[in-house]
Amino acid sequence: MPESLPASDRTRVVREAHRATYNREVIYKILDEAFVCHIGFAVEGQPFVIPTMFARIGDALYIHGSAASRMLRALAAGAPACVTVTLLDGLILARSIFNHSMNYRSVVALGHAMIIDDPAEKLRALQAFAEKLIPGRWNDVRQPNEKELKATHILKLPLTEVSAKVRTGGVEDDAEDYAFPVWAGVIPLRLAVDPPLRDDRCDASLPTPSYASNFPR
Amino acid sequence: MPESLPASDRTRVVREAHRATYNREVIYKILDEAFVCHIGFAVEGQPFVIPTMFARIGDALYIHGSAASRMLRALAAGAPACVTVTLLDGLILARSIFNHSMNYRSVVALGHAMIIDDPAEKLRALQAFAEKLIPGRWNDVRQPNEKELKATHILKLPLTEVSAKVRTGGVEDDAEDYAFPVWAGVIPLRLAVDPPLRDDRCDASLPTPSYASNFPR
């Protein structure tokens, strides 16, 4: 795959194009950091946007579907999809209301998802979900049995038509507003991890794994 | 407006229906806590999902559009929309891979957005955006002038067809897995606020407002 994805008419960033990037490394880093994606699809002309967990393996996203869901039925029937991932990094407090903004990193991927039937690929996707949540978890837990694997529906969306948009840095005010006497700056935001809470039914003799007590984010 | 919204065929939660709520108070609390929504719309059959800031006033969501954007053009032309908001509260580390999950609160709103032309309503929406970012900011900054207000495009989406889905609490394993000897529990996640960073061009004599030094979240 090339290092940068071509901007199609549909993925070219129209608004604030200087914030756009089509670089695969930048895009994949954003995807790998996010726990949740928002997947868009339409049913009888009505768009739905559903938050769901996902993982990336190589040049594809994997999504965990349910047979009962509108999403799986629509996507399996060939409906075009859009998967969007957003990370929020800060609030921009400018001197004018008009220039208030946010720092963020987002990715928009368009394409068609397909249902994965191959048990080995399904297993790889489940492993990728687990390792994305928390690296090291997969080897510690009870892995899927054949019945669970059969009941699991995995969708794959190849990453061919993708763009990212990133706002970073500080306040950008209009020249004439810099004299306005108000504090201006950035309030940084991040996803924070609090100490793990042991399940009531988890025997106290079982050690807390380092990946939980010392979360790697 | 009634306390609870009726579940339409389109907003009724199909998957894990016990996690669904149609209570307006619960729904509005989730909307008010989130900084970003994901708005879905289709252009020539292709869904797009775009992250954007928003605010709620009463029984409507307001979204800040740009005249140059696909989104504004599509929604203004009457395309049906879906606005989804997701808050991530924790990772559920179960004993089996299959029962790994996340704690979250999400809202899905369906409807049609309309462009707001009334300058007074546009101003109220801008004030709601500012006060959502950080209560108290609106009165401190240079408020919009007539030219800016004219250039601002605000979309309104009445909240008539809305549902929420909430997962809370701890691990839920299958009965036979509780004996599996692995640590299980919840890793709490939250949006954290770091100390504010003063803009390089902000005179050091201007005090940091308490809403920035002591962020109310």
Quick structural gist:
2 copies of one chain form a homodimer. Chain A is α+β, with helices and mostly antiparallel strands and 217 residues long.
Please give a structural write-up.
- 2 copies of one chain form a homodimer.
- Chain A is of the alpha+beta class.
- Chain A has a single domain (17-213), classed as Electron Transport, Fmn-binding Protein, Chain A (Pnp Oxidase, Chain A), CATH 2.30.110.10.
- Helices cover 21% and strands 37% of the residues of chain A.
- Chain A is built from 6 helices and 11 strands.
- Chain A has helices at residues 24-33, 70-76, 119-133, 137-140, 146-151, 210-213; strands at 20-21, 36-43, 46-57, 60-65, 80-93, 101-112, 114-115, 153-158, 161-167, 185-193, 197-198.
- In chain A, strands 1, 2, 3, 4, 5, 6, 7, 8, 9 and 10 form a 10-stranded antiparallel beta sheet that branches.
- In chain A, strand 2 and strand 3 form a beta hairpin.
- Chain A is globular.
- The model of chain A has no long low-confidence stretch (mean pLDDT 92).
- Chains A and B meet through strand 2, strand 3, strand 5, strand 6 and helix 3 of A and strand 2, strand 3, strand 5, strand 6 and helix 3 of B.
- Strand 10 of chain A pairs antiparallel with strand 10 of chain B.
